[in-house]
Design a protein that fits this description.
mainly alpha
C-alpha cells in the first residue's frame, strides 16, 4: 500500500466493509421487511459513494490510482458477486452494477479481464467461478440457482 494513502485507504475499507461487504449479507439475510429496508438503502448509498469516489481525479483505473491496493481486493470480492448473485438471491435489487454504476463496472471489468503481471497473470479472473458463486448462495437460501445474468460479466471492450 502506498504509505501516503494508508489513512485514506483504511477509512475507505472501514465503511466499505460495514455497508457493502457486510451490507449485502445484512440485506440478504434480513428476517423482516424493516430489517431489509434498513440495510438495502444504505448499501446502495455506499455504492453511490464509491461511484463518486471513482469519479474523482487520481481514483482510476483502480480505487486509489495506478496500483491495485488492498481496497481493490476487498471490494472486488463483493462486487464480482453483485450482479450474478446478490441482486437476485439476496434481493440487493435496487440497481445492477453493470447498468447503474459505470465507473464501478469499468473498474470491475478491468480487474477481472486483466491477465497481465499487474494481476499476477489473471488472479482475479482465475479465482472467480460464477456458477459456484451462484450455486453456493442459492443452496444457502434454499432456492433454485439463477441462470443469469448472461454474460456473467460484460467484456472489457464494447
Amino acid at each position: 500500500m502506498p504509505p501516503q494513502l494508508k489513512d485514506e485507504i483504511d477509512e475507505f475499507n472501514s465503511w466499505v466493509y460495514d455497508l457493502v461487504n457486510n451490507g449485502v449479507y445484512k440485506t440478504g439475510f434480513a428476517g423482516t421487511q424493516a430489517a431489509y429496508e434498513a440495510n438495502v438503502f444504505p448499501l446502495f448509498e455506499a455504492l453511490d459513494r464509491i461511484e463518486a469516489h471513482m469519479s474523482q481525479p487520481g481514483h482510476s483505473p483502480y480505487l486509489f490510482g495506478d496500483h491495485i491496493t488492498e481496497a481493490d481486493i476487498r471490494l472486488y470480492v463483493t462486487m464480482i458477486r453483485f450482479d450474478a448473485a446478490y441482486v437476485t438471491i439476496f434481493r440487493c435489487n435496487l440497481r445492477m452494477v453493470r447498468f447503474a454504476y459505470p465507473k464501478i463496472d469499468l473498474w470491475l471489468r478491468t480487474l477481472y479481464h486483466d491477465v497481465s503481471e499487474k494481476t499476477n497473470g489473471g488472479a482475479f479472473k482465475n479465482t472467480t467461478d460464477f456458477d459456484i458463486i451462484k450455486k453456493g448462495y442459492a443452496v444457502v437460501k434454499g432456492i433454485p440457482t439463477p441462470v443469469g445474468p448472461l454474460p456473467h460479466i460484460l467484456p472489457l471492450e464494447g
